[in-house]
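Render this sequence as a predicted structure.
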Amino acid sequence: MTRTPLRPLARILQARAKGENPDVIERENIRQRHEQMRDRQRHLAEGRLLVLGAFFFVAFIAVGLRMGMISASDPTEPRASGSADSQILNQRADIVDRDGNILATNMATYSLYAQPQQMINPVAVAKDLKKIFPDLDLARMERQFTGKRTFVWIRKTLSPEQMQEVHDIGDPGLLFGPREMRLYPNGHLASHILGGVRFGREGVDSAELVGVGGIEKVYDNWLRDPANGGKPLVLSLDLTAEATVREVLKAGMDMLHAKGAAAVLMNVHTGEIVSMVSLPDFDPNERPTPKPTKDPGDSPLFNRAVQGVYELGSTFKLFVLAQALQMGLVTPDTVIDTKPFRLGGFLIHDFHNYGSQMTVTKILVESSNIGAARMAQMIGPEKQEAFLRTLGLLNTTGVQLVEAEGAKPILPPKWTDVASSTIAYGHGLAVSPLHLATAYASILNGGMRIYPTLIKTDHPKVGPRVVSEKVSATARAILRQVVTQGTASMGNVKGYDIAGKTGTADKPDPQGGYYKNKVVSSFASVFPARDPKYVLVVTLDEPSDGTGKDAKRTAGWTAVPVAAEIVRRVAPLLGMRPQVETASLNGVKLAQN
């Protein structure tokens, strides 16, 4: 800026020459200089006010936005976040049935922990917590709260009501941490299949859910993988069918005073398990702690359908029949010697005297042990073992349950002639109900080996052919006669022609030999017999029907009626219309859907 002199010499000389007063020039220059200074100060002040106004405007907007975010968020207790907490992944995908019904999901909840050094009255807080949570140890809490500890876990999960009661205590030393818990909305339904979870790594504001059994453990990594985008795991189960099967099976178990029960309902063509129930069961929301017992079957965590390895009695007679038919050794009308005989020092005989000769069909209908043993002798031990292995009866089932990995069949030490004969009628080889269902489906679905699965699939895994379609159809026809004329006559359901085989096996005594009055009764069946869609296996552990003079324990009196009631209720739920026979005008019977 150019500074103008107050008394410029040229103007002063001019003014004196004209006789004017030079001081006027100086006063005017001073006035102009002051006006310039005032303008500069005013512009500077206006700039400062503009900047200050802009700053306050931005600050007001920022505070308003923050207040809006806080008002829209969930209220949480202030807490310090450790670096380890940020690494915990607490999201877990849902599990649904084949129709999308929720079987397992996550629910937001809170944990409760304490920082005793911040408590106002630790003893009073302990007493108040005891009122809310009666299972807590009051003396222990008082020691923890009044000691030197700086952190105490009190509760891993809280209900909203419990959280409010704790909040009402109002002590600053009680703090809440957000987390997710696994929720099984259907309670006991499918408990052995789902398994359950536990908390893994934990922090005050998050916790890791880790599978401990069933599907939850087998698919643990998949369910926790963020790459799946929260996509649910779809099982083959039908929740409605599962509920119905459990209801009927529970009623049957209670009426027959059975120690336990199991049922497997499977699609014969895909191996998809539509329902699998084991009783007694449990609530996976409150999964019990395993306790040591003499008999694993005493634990509600024991899955009888998969882990229960039993001798399943005469249900095995289908296998020797199918193999003998496939090898061309017999036909349905072949007559076989059924007189009792000794083999290796053992007397092989029947429950009743059926005569000295029987046809192959009659052997199955009347359930003759002697006839089955005679057919096994025709086949030979080596070929019998190979056939049963093809059916999957000598290995684990491979179903997607961690419990199935240890459920290995109990095989004879050596596959001798004696072992071959007794295995033909279901003694000397122990398998699970799921093994039995898989083998029945493979033979009776047309003869194709299938593999059990709990995952819904559009591309089922199908193995080699085990028997021809003709043998499969013949076996179904014979098993249909078992229901209409033989040991499973109480299993006939109008409109759904069931074909199946009963089995009653004495339970082994751990001290040696077999119990005299303890049995495992089973009924393995397919329906409808002409074009099978499903296989159903029902097994009861130590049933006893005491309605008559003498207690009845055989499968025909125990397992068969339960299975029939299951089919009667479940078949319509699965979209199967009953086939009703009506007479035409010329007297010819027609089957209508």
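Summary. The longest helix spans residues 22-72. Confidence is low (pLDDT under 50) at residues 80-87, 583-593.
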